[in-house]
Amino acid sequence: MEPTTTTTTSSSFPSTPRWNIDRPFLTGRFHQEAKVTSRFTEAKGFSVDSFSAGPDKAIGCFDAAVQELIVIDDLLSAMVGIEGRYILIKRVRGKEDNVTFQVDPSMDLALQELAKKIFPLCESFMMINQFVESRSQFKNGLVNHAFAAALRALLLDYQAMVAQLEHQFQLGRLSMQGLWFYCQPMMGSMQALSTVIQKASTNDFAGSAVLNLLQSQAKAMAGDNAVRSLLEKMTQCASNAYLGILERWVYEGVIDDPYGEFFIAENKSLQKESLTLDYDAKFWRQRYSLKDGIPSFLANIAGKILTTGKYLNVMRECGHHVQVPVSENSKLMIFGSNHHYLECIKAAYDFASCELLNLIKEKYDLIGKLRSIKHYLLLDQGDFLVHFMDISRDELTKKIDEISVEKLQSLLDLALRTTAAAADPCNEDLTCCVERSSLLKRLGALKDLEASRTFSDGNDLEEPVSVTGLETFSLSYKVQWPLSIVISRKALTKYQLIFRFLFHCKHVDRQLCGAWQVHQGVRALKMRGTAISRSSLLCRSMLKFINSLLHYLTFEVLEPNWHIMHSRLQTAKSIDEVVQHHDFFLDKCLRECLLLLPEVLKKVEKLKSLCLQYAAATQWLISSSIDIPKLGELSDGSVANSRSPSRALKLTTRNPSVADSILKFEKEFNAELLSLGPILSSSSQAEPYLTHLAQWILGVGKDQ
């Protein structure tokens, strides 16, 4: 896996003091910048003075044995980054980290070849030493600090080896061949580390990028067991600080990340209060989020790590302080082939998930709140709504700008107190509101609904000339933290869309029931075969249509889906599963309630509009046919008997506009109803749940 470039983003770390750079004796670089004399005085009977080389004397002036001693002395210096007399360090201008070693061309060729074999080790040491010095600064982050510390410990072992070689040299027991023999075991490891360091320096890696680089290089060196083991040890040492950050997150829900290296970011600008206002629920999805550059050994479990800390933070926001039980076996300071760290993370996730789920279900009564919302917004408990519609009729028939929301709220409170809803302790959380647009326009404005574009582009449905409160009235529900995680602004909006559709259907049903009562009031006149009789049949067909629709919505959509969701919530293992099941319930209800099927919904809305127009015209139709000052007097038998059927028939005949109006309503309603049938039948192939509604609707058509 290729490492992902990650640089530290935090600016809160202190800067490195200037004197740490200006004073070379504090860093050790002065050794590399000043020539020193040979460290041996006597070797193999030779005096240093006897072959002391000056800048004007080439090494080729000495015989091979003396050259070997001089070269060994220079190589021991070069191995710790110190320039010798005949082995020089050359730096590339502008690239201080790139160094090369040069030898006196007059040196014996055999000695030159052996020296050049050892030069890569010297170059690796200088590169590693420079990396340790530079990456120990604050700005490079904890992972680089830990990696540099591990390298520093390795260099101590390396320098101890050089010191032992020097001791052997001073005893006259070290030759060039011996020096090459002792250096070979370290060559592969030092070169592998220098390769890692060069990539890390070139790309300015920090945090997880360093860990990924080390791990990928260790895998690439699978054929060299010693080098692979060393790189794995370096990875382990460098990851200790990172795992410390991870441990605090999964066990306490705290991001202790001073250098911005952790793969989880916190957006402190998002507050939990925004859940009740923000339709996109950004707090839950974006307060804590994954960043780029996840360590490869945590990539498959990064989502679970993020969720674990989120759950712990939710409980802290609730004032419920909880910490995952930590034991010696659950420490996250080691990762390896046994995957023990994965088991620790999974255990922390299970604990946090269970604790939060129990807290929301038991202390905050999630199921009770959802059941209360079902009572009111899904019209599961309809007695309060009937009473409310009776007492608020005058207010709801006004135009939107003339409606008093405060008056509606007081009427709603009155309806709640005087019906069975008074026993519900959650009824105080119910509020009313008046939307500014019709249901179809509201559906078109919701960007995440798949049918919104069709609604917004469709212009074939005529909007009401004057939209009243009956088309825009809605209920809302006060949801407190942490229940707002589940019942978010988006979820409430979906509940409100369903409520508005049901509420308007109830309104149409009530209006048609009123029209039916008017027809029943003139049954005593026995007007069979007249326009009134035809109107009565039309009214019955409309009632059957709206009742079939309401039956489908409530008993075949909302109730079954609610019970399925309820059973799933009982077996949910985490709050995210609860949110998922709840959202699935709402989306399924929206679709099956026709709110995501523009073609079907527009037909239904047209039929409802015809029903309302007919119900509003019923009073005029009856009064135009029969001259009755007050329809209530029809309850008096004497009044009814005083009018003969022939007299009523004559009045009907004299007013042909009545029959024409009824016939027009009948033809238009039947045409819309019959056109809806094929749409439902064709759509039921893709949407099987429409089969039930189609049966009801087609049944209405057959009655006609």
Produce a short descriptive summary.
With 704 residues, this protein is mainly α. It has 26 helices and eight strands. The radius of gyration is 43 Å and the shape is rod-shaped.
Key terms for this structure?
704 residues, mainly alpha, two-stranded antiparallel sheet, two-stranded antiparallel ribbon, 26 helices, rod-shaped, disordered C terminus, GCP_C, gamma-tubulin binding, cytoskeleton, GCP, Gamma-tubulin complex component
Q: In oligomeric terms, what are we looking at?
A: single chain
Structural class by secondary-structure content: mainly alpha
Helix content: 55-70%
Strand neighbour order, sheet with most strands: 1-2
Helix count from the secondary structure assignment: 26
Describe the overall structure:
This protein has 704 residues and is mainly alpha-helical. Helices cover 61% and strands 5% of the residues. The protein has 26 helices and 8 strands. Strands 1-2 form a two-stranded antiparallel sheet. It has a two-stranded antiparallel sheet with strand order 3-4. Strands 5-6 form a two-stranded antiparallel ribbon. A hairpin with a 2-residue loop joins β3 (87-92) and β4 (95-103). α13 packs across α15, α19 packs parallel to α21 and α19 runs parallel beside α22 (598-625). It is rod-shaped and about 140 Å long. The two termini are 70 Å apart. Mean pLDDT is 79; it is low at 1-11, 35-55, 450-454, 458-462, 628-654 and 700-704.
